Amino acid sequence: MSIHLALHALHTLPPSNANRDELGSPKTALYGGVPRARISSQSLKRAMRTHFSTAGLVPAQDLSVRTRQGIGQLATTITQRRPDLDGEQAAALAEKVLVFATGASVDAASVRRKTTAGGAPVTRETLFLGLRQIGRLADLAVQGADDITAFLKTRANATAVKEAAASRDAVDIALFGRMIATGDDLTLDAAVQVSQAIAVHRSSAEVDFFTAVDDLATKGDNGAGMVGQREFLSATFYRYAALTGPDLAANLTDYAGTMDVGQVTAAFIRAFAETVPTGHITSYAHTTRPDVLIATVTGSPLSHIGAFETPVETSTGGHLTTAAARLAEHIQATDTAYGDPAARSWLLTLNPHATEPLHATATRLTNLTELAEAAAGELARRTREKTLKEQA
Question: Closest Cα partner for 304 from 348, 237, 238?
Fold first, then answer.
């Protein structure tokens, strides 16, 4: 049995359009036969990744960039090491090295090269490279700058370049994994699973009709400068994510930074709790925190979305009280039927009166720091003990 951290949240968003589909409407899904608001896992993961840097949870050099502008990124780093190279020379060098290292192809016709270093082209593929990886590739590129083609034909140099591109020296790559279609040796399985957030109740979009007034309109001009409409909705979501401790430890084997498994896990917990996707954020300011957050360290991480297969209904308004009771009932039933007797859980709630049934399911704490430290410390301890036991 492995060691996992499971995170469960009840999270209410006010009127918003945090994650929209190809038509600009809020994403939805059918669950339990009724329409529900939905936020994609990809959107949630990106919000968490960007929060690592904006909130200072992970040192900048320990993170990565996911971009098609990797050649331009590498060219910029090359010129920092070799200021005598002009932008075009650095871009040409970077293109040779990055294409060789990753197998990516160049989108020569892309207009995005206008904004990259030295007019560097973009790749057709989106790459996910750690900042320290880019630095190593730049060091190698500089070594072979006089004749990069001959440099890459040398086996030792070629191996060094491939290994630099395939290393796992970034916290977010260790957590969320990496899939690059051009090279299996660059792919890394994620240590984290993130579910699609689903509303616990029936939910449908409404239409916001808006006008923009022309500030310089004359007194007799009563028409709007423009008119438009966009869809929005409000929902209470059930969110779930799981992190496998031994997988995270294995993914950090190339990591040259200072954070250990416990510190990375604590940063992940904070990012899970402190982020929402920022679609149309300036129009809706929908930044909120989960009303309920439960962290469980267990050998059997299980989603409790089944608690809401029948949608929550209310005649008096408010979904949280009923949702919390449903969640508590499902946790207790699941623990009885399939649970791990050694599991430990911690609970953070913004509304103890509305969430009282959940109090018996976990140890209540008063703030996110306490919860993150308790759960991350337990996951790290059990992961370390499991590793030592396997090595004995």
Answer: 238
Residue 146 buriedness (CB in 10 A; 0-12 / 13-18 / 19+): exposed
Dihedral of CA 119/120/121/124: which sign? negative
Q: Which residues pair with 168 in a beta bridge?
A: none
CA distance 194 to 301: 12
Q: What is the pLDDT of residues 187-242, one digit of tens each?
A: 999 999 999 999 999 999 999 998 888 888 887 777 778 899 999 999 999 999 99
C-alpha count within 13 angstroms, C-beta hemisphere, residue 270? 21
Helices (H), the chain: 41-54, 70-81, 87-102, 131-143, 148-153, 155-166, 171-176, 245-251, 261-274, 281-284, 320-338, 368-391
Tokens of 200: 């616990």
In angstroms, rounded to a whole number, what is the distance separating the alpha carbons of residues 203 and 13?
Answer: 12
Amino acid at 226: M
Q: How many angstroms separate the CA atoms of 313 and 199, rounded?
A: 12
In this structure, are residues 10 and 291 in contact, taking their beta carbons and an 8 Å threshold?
yes
**pLDDT single digits (tens) 256-278:** 999 999 999 999 999 999 999 99
Instruction: Provide the total of helices (H) and of strands (E) in the chain, helices listed first.
Output: 12, 14
Tokens standing for 307?
A: 């608690």
Report residue 213 as tokens. Answer: 């007034």
Size of the chain, expressed as the number of residues it contains: 392
Nearest to 232 by CA among 285, 272, 290: 285
Q: Give yes or no for a contact between 178 and 227, defined as CB atoms under 8 angstroms apart.
A: no
